[in-house]
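testing teh design pipeline on a random one, pls ignore if ur not involved
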């Protein structure tokens, strides 16, 4: 299942890049962006991207990832690394992995553009992220015995993964600087169908339904209570943020 999903994503990104590269490209400052979709990893972003494509057109939705590391910004557009982010002039939606503060620091002109994002139970998000990455490593190297051997020896446990700094409080880091009380829309993955309908009405979308298309295998959903407590401890800020948002949207 994951292999099929990864192939679909790969083909989709290739098509998107071809559409982009065939047009005149301009910097973000020259775009008339209607919506920003901030995708926190493992919060339904792939499914939501499909919904955006259906409503705005695949050619008008850009997958834009920003990574700030070692005092340097790195960018990807539709899976391709780029030195300077340039987009077709008719791009209407930016969707991708980026921290809110990084986006606004780079592009202050986007501060007043409606932002849509999704949050998820912090423990479920970490668990899903862990097994997703593990499955990707296995799928990509399944025909390479030496690589699989290394994966088996070097792969960390769920508990070890959750202790790593990059895995902790990811939702809080992505949304830092965004006022959750005045944010245009924050959806709850556990209420995905209902929240999609709510957002669709807010934006007058014609297409309002999209099945989840990037689900990690459910065969490892039984997690010991002790591990759950450990993950919650490593993600105290996310646990509180999730509680605040679920209370806010009731």
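output:
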């Amino acid at each position: 299942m994951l292999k099929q999903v990864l192939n679909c994503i790969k083909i989709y990104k290739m098509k998107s890049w071809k559409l982009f590269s065939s047009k005149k490209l301009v910097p973000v400052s020259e775009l008339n962006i209607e919506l920003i979709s901030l995708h926190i990893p493992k919060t339904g972003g792939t499914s939501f991207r499909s919904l955006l494509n259906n409503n705005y057109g695949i050619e008008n939705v850009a997958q834009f990832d920003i990574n700030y590391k070692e005092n340097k910004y790195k960018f990807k557009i539709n899976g391709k690394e780029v030195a300077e982010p340039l987009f077709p002039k008719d791009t209407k939606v930016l969707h991708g992995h980026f921290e809110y503060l990084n986006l606004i620091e780079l592009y202050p002109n986007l501060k007043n553009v409606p932002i849509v994002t999704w949050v998820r139970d912090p423990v479920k998000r970490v668990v899903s992220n862990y097994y997703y990455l593990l499955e990707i490593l296995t799928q990509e190297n399944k025909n390479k015995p030496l690589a699989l051997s290394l994966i088996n020896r070097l792969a960390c446990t769920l508990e070890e993964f959750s202790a790593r700094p990059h895995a902790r409080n990811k939702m809080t880091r992505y949304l830092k600087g965004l006022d959750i009380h005045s944010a245009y829309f924050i959806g709850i993955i556990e209420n995905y169908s209902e929240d999609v309908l709510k957002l669709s009405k807010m934006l007058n979308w014609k297409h309002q339904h999209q099945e989840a298309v990037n689900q990690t295998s459910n065969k490892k959903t039984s997690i010991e209570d002790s591990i759950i407590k450990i993950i919650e401890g490593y993600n105290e800020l996310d646990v509180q943020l999730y509680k605040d948002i679920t209370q806010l949207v009731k």
